[in-house]
C-alpha cells in the first residue's frame, strides 16, 4: 500500500479527510500517475515512491493476484478468517513483511496500518514464528483498526489519540506515545517502522521453542501406541511369531558363504604356518648360541 487519492476538492491524507483551503493548490498534484473521471468528478492517484500499481478488472472476483481484503475478510463472520489466522502463525518471515505483502495473507494493509496493529498487539515487526494466540490477536486488531479508520474518514474525524498514528510523524526523531513511552525507528519489511521498544520486544527464542515442541510432539506420536485394545497372544501364537521372525532374518547366498569360509580357513592356515616358522627360527637361534 502506497500513494494517495486526491480530488480537486478533497484529499485523504494524514488520517483526516479534509477540504482544501488553499485555492492555489494545483490539481493534479505532483507525482500523479493516474486520473479517474466520472462526469465532472475527478480523482488522481499520486505516488512519490512509485511502490504502487494499478490493474483494471471487471470485478474484484477476477483480481486473483490479490489476497483477501484486510477489512471484509477479517471479521468474525468471514469464511477466510481461520485460513488467514493459520497463514499468519508459525511463519519464518517477519510479521510486518508478511502483512505488507498484498498477495500473501491480506490486501489493503499499508505501512502505518501494519505499525499500528503491531503496536497495539505489543509485537515486534521482525517477530517470526507467531503462536496461534498472537495470530488471532493480530487479525482481530487489524479488523478493528481498519473499521475505525473508515468510520473516522467518513465522519471527518481524526484517528483516536491513543493510536501510534498521532505520534509517529516526527521525521524519524525520538518521540513518545500517549503514555510517555519512547519511540524508536527501524527498517522492517523494506519500510521505516515506528515501535515502542519497551513493549515490542523481539523474541528470537520463540521460533526455537516452537521447533522443539513440534519435535517432541512428533516423537510422542511415533512412540505412542494406537488406541483400542492391544492384541493378546497365546503361548502357541508367540512361538509362531518368533519362528516367523527367525525366518525373516537375512540369509547370505551360498556363494558368499563359501567365500567367507575359504577366507577364514586360509587365514587360519596362514597363522599356523607363521607360528611354525617363528618356532623354527627361535630353535635355530638357540642352537647357534649353544654351539658358540
Give a concise summary:
With 292 residues, the chain is of the alpha+beta class. Helix content is 41%, strand content 12%.
Comma- or semicolon-separated keywords:
single chain; 292 residues; alpha+beta; 3-stranded antiparallel β-sheet; two-stranded antiparallel ribbon; 12% strand
Could you walk me through the main structural features you see in this protein, from its secondary elements to its overall organization?
There is one protein chain. The chain is α+β, with helices and mostly antiparallel strands and 292 residues long. The strands form three sheets. A three-stranded antiparallel beta sheet has the order 1-5-4, with no helix packed on it. Strands 2-3 form a two-stranded antiparallel sheet. It is built from seven helices and seven strands, in the order E-E-E-E-E-H-H-H-H-E-E-H-H-H. Mean pLDDT is 77; it is low at 283-292. The chain has helices at residues 81-88, 95-100, 111-121, 132-154, 205-223, 235-248, 254-291, and strands at residues 4-6, 10-13, 16-19, 32-38, 41-46, 184-188, 191-195. Helix content is 41%, strand content 12%. Helix 1 crosses helix 4 (132-154) and helix 3 (111-121) crosses helix 4. The longest helix is centred in the last third of the chain and has 38 residues, at 254-291.
